[in-house]
Structures are given as structure tokens and as C-alpha cells.
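queue> pop job 88
queue> type: inverse folding (structure -> sequence)
queue> payload:
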């Protein structure tokens, strides 16, 4: 089942002699349950593509469909709701609210929608990520790796169509970075979570099922590791 489709996506910043083409006619299809890494040098368009797929930004041309819905046409308010309900975002920095417990941080997307969590699914997430004993702690009482696990749990709580991870290991040492990648793989396998991971780390990219390489805003390589 196709969960994501980019059709001729182009993103241009500026105009005239100062114009920069960040994405140049990107065509991309991702199936439900895939774990895909997007790699490329700085300035290749990786983050721009992720932001457009996550409805943080809009393409200059082309369409982006998530679950068959064209998100390119969403208003800012609609885009905010879409991100909260359909896209899990994991960044290099954890963006946890320091005055709230880990439990409340994880449940925040549901709280904003005034929805009650599914206790069984919540327990499954926190057990899978190994933070079930940290739920009443504040973020500052956790290690960097544990905070990133909490951020991943928060991104999964709404059962998003896509989990978008932008350099999630970039702020961690190698051991904690390894653990976070293992957690992403676990959510992909145990929760059938579709993941798009941006990374500059080749070792991290090799953990994905599929690697897409961007160069100057274009896809120059798209290969599957297995399957």
C-alpha cells in the first residue's frame, strides 16, 4: 500500500540571480511499513524534502500525497492539524517540555486534541522503547538517549501515517545513537511504522531497508538493502 507519493516536487527559494533550486522535480513513492533513509551532502535538499513531506513547508511546484491526500493545498491551520495527527516528527533536539513529566510529554499530541490514549498501545510503545520506568521523571532527569526515546514515543502515540526523523542521532554519542536507531527499527518492525530518516551518517543509513541519495535537489540513487 502506497503511503507517500511525491510528484514532480520542485522547491525554489529567492528570485532572479539569487534564485536557489532546493528540490528539482522529485518523484518518490514509499510503501506502508518501509524504513527509508535519505542521504546526501549538506545543501542536497534532504531537510527541504522532509519539511515538505511533513507539511512544514510547501512545494513551489508539484504535489505531495500522504495516504492519498494532497497535503500541498492545506492551509496553515489544516497543516498544523495534519502534522499532529498524521506525521510523527523526530528531530536532533528532543523538544520535550522540561516542566512536564515524560508521560505527559508523550501524551501531548492527544492532549491537544482532547483525546484519551489507548492504554494498551501506550504501554506497548513505552515498553518497546524501554522507558516504562521513566514516565514520572522530568526530561532533565534523563540521559540524552532516553530523552530521544521519549521524543520517539511522543511521535508514535497518534499512530502516524509517517514518522519523519531528521538527524535523530546527531546530538548523541555513538552508543546512544546506536540505541536510537535500534528503537526506530523496533517501531518499524513491531508497530509496522513507516519511517523516513534523514542522516549524514552512512552507518545509520545502512540500517534502513532502502537508501535514497539526493544531490543538488535531485534523486541520484535509490536502492533497497534487502527484501
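queue> result:
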Amino acid at each position: 500500500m502506497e503511503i507517500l507519493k511525491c510528484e514532480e516536487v520542485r522547491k525554489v527559494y529567492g528570485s532572479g540571480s539569487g534564485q536557489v533550486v532546493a528540490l528539482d522535480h522529485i518523484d518518490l513513492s514509499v510503501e506502508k511499513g518501509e524504513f527509508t533513509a535519505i542521504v546526501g551532502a549538506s545543501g542536497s535538499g534532504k531537510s527541504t524534502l522532509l519539511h515538505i513531506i511533513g507539511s512544514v513547508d510547501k512545494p513551489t511546484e508539484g504535489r505531495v500525497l500522504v495516504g492519498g491526500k494532497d497535503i500541498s493545498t492545506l492551509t496553515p491551520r489544516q497543516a498544523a492539524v495534519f502534522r499532529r495527527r498524521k506525521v510523527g516528527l523526530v528531530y536532533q533536539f528532543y523538544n520535550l517540555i522540561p516542566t512536564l513529566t515524560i508521560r505527559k510529554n508523550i501524551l501531548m499530541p492527544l492532549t491537544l486534541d482532547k483525546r484519551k490514549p489507548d492504554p494498551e498501545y501506550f504501554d506497548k510503545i513505552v515498553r518497546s522503547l524501554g522507558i516504562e520506568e521513566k514516565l514520572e521523571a522530568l526530561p532533565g532527569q534523563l540521559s540524552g538517549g532516553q530523552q530521544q526515546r521519549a521524543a520517539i514515543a511522543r511521535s508514535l502515540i497518534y499512530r502516524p501515517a509517517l514518522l519523519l526523523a531528521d538527524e535523530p542521532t546527531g546530538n548523541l554519542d555513538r552508543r546512544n545513537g546506536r540505541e536510537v536507531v535500534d528503537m526506530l527499527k523496533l517501531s518499524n518492525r513491531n508497530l509496522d511504522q513507516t519511517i523516513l530518516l534523514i542522516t549524514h551518517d552512512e552507518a545509520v543509513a545502512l540500517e534502513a531497508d532502502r537508501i535514497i541519495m539526493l544531490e543538488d535537489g535531485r534523486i541520484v540513487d535509490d536502492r533497497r538493502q534487502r527484501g
